[in-house]
Amino acid sequence: MTTTVARPRITVRRVVFTLVLLTVTTALFWVPFEGLFAASAQWPDPVRPVAAVVFAAAAVSMIVLFTRRNSDRAARVSHFLLGFVWIAFVWTLIADVLRLVLAVSGVDNPLRSRVVAVLLAVLIAAVTAYGVHEAMRVPRIKRQDVTIPRLDPAFDGLTVAVITDTHYGAIDRAKWSRGMVDAVNGLNADVAVHVGDIADGTAEQRREQASPLGDVNAAHRFYITGNHEYYSNAQGWIDLMTRLGWKALHNEHAVLERGGARLVFAGIDDITANHSGEPGHAADLALALRGTEPADPVVLLAHQPSEVRKAVEAGVDLQLSGHTHGGQIWPFHYLVRLQQPVVAGLSRHGDRTQLYTSRGAGFWGPPMRVFAPSEITLLTLKAA
Asked: 3-state class of 375 per DSSP?
């Protein structure tokens, strides 16, 4: 008896995606190659041919390694290559301004191209090293006061430590996680929240990196899912965080009370849950707020800032989000802004609702942050 292996079906969507991927990858590698090894620089043989082979091999390797989804080693190499080539691409385009200035100033080739190439190489190396340092360091503390007009004076001064986008993944950051938790504990916050994208991988895979979260010291600890949980069994992460002592706000809310005054913390599943196929998961703000009183001030945990439109309609006072990473690697924030209403910081939406968008504590993919520093946020709630 013979068995046949089903081959992937060729569709228009698959063909278009493949063509776009190849085009983008080619551009990302071709632009810095020409900036560093332009023919006009007249580098001695065989510099340019060897460089061409190296760049082509790196491009092919990045694509191939990206397809090995279950290999942390492949992910570490491919993600670093992606970040490196993005930095090289961006700074090559910037270096073209210098190339133009030198041309106008009468500096001829090959000197012009060689000067640009050397400065560009130094820039790429320096920015890459800076980006890795910023990504791997324990996040800085960012402090922000938020005045909530409907907040009862009993809650004036309540502090909320905001963690989001830890993205535990292919690089073992258990030690980093411990340092982050120590930084959070140093804030002595009343409430700690994790606003999703806890990891890339299942709870079983990333348990060691996530386990220090169980030592976060706060009277109340709330957690919601982000989009990345829905790539790796979100319910598994809810179960683990529950065992670590966090209250998962799975389309539900919790009420804090002081002297008869109330403050609601509500949380919703990430919007990607709607199409994840995971049973019992879908973003449902109405369900999360069911049972609250009209006069209750509400702090909503919603992973993506784009959910603020629904928060405005529901009369939420403050939404806490992450997801954007502040763009992570400049100038990627311009692309993030096409999808999200806010990239980072405190913003107002409608008459009542405010949104705080954290740049996040970790990183996704490339282990780099360029002009988008990570953060742990300490919010101090103020009554009007």
From this structure: strand
**Going by DSSP bridges, is the β-strand pair 375-383/159-163 parallel, antiparallel, or unpaired?**
antiparallel
Contacts of 317 by beta carbon, 8 Å cutoff, 6+ apart: 148, 149, 150, 151, 297, 298, 299, 352, 353, 354
CA distance 372 to 247: 30
∠ CA 262-282-295, rounded to 5°: 20
DSSP state of 131: H
| Residues 247 and 216 sit within 8 Å (Cβ to Cβ) | no
Average pLDDT over residues 315-330: 98
Catalogue the long-range contacts made by 253-256 (C-beta closer than 8 Å, 24 or more residues apart): 253/288, 253/289, 253/291, 253/292, 253/298, 254/220, 254/222, 255/292, 255/296, 256/155, 256/158, 256/191, 256/220
Res 165 pLDDT > 80? yes
Distance CA 25, CA 62 (A): 9
Domains of the chain, earliest start first? 12-135 (no CATH), 139-383 (3.60.21.10)
Identify residue 36 by its one-letter amino acid code: L
Q: What is each CA distance from 145 to 158, 159, 254, 321, in whole angstroms?
A: 10, 9, 22, 16
Confidence of residue 209 (pLDDT cuts 50, 70, 90): very high
Average confidence (pLDDT) over 202-214: 97
Average pLDDT over residues 353-368: 97
Contact 240, 224 (CB under 8 A): no
CB atoms within 10 A of CB 32: 24
Give me the DSSP letters along 152-182: -GGGTT-EEEEE----B-SS--HHHHHHHHH
CB 324 within 8 A of CB 315: no
Q: How far apart are CA 81 and CA 367, in angstroms?
A: 10
Write the pLDDT tens digit of every residue in 111-153. 999 999 999 999 999 999 999 999 999 999 999 999 999 999 9
Burial of 152 (0-12, 13-18, 19+ CB in 10 A): middle
Place of tokens 């080739």: 109
Do 303 and 288 contact (CB within 8 A), yes or no?
A: no
Q: What is the pLDDT of residue 281?
A: 96
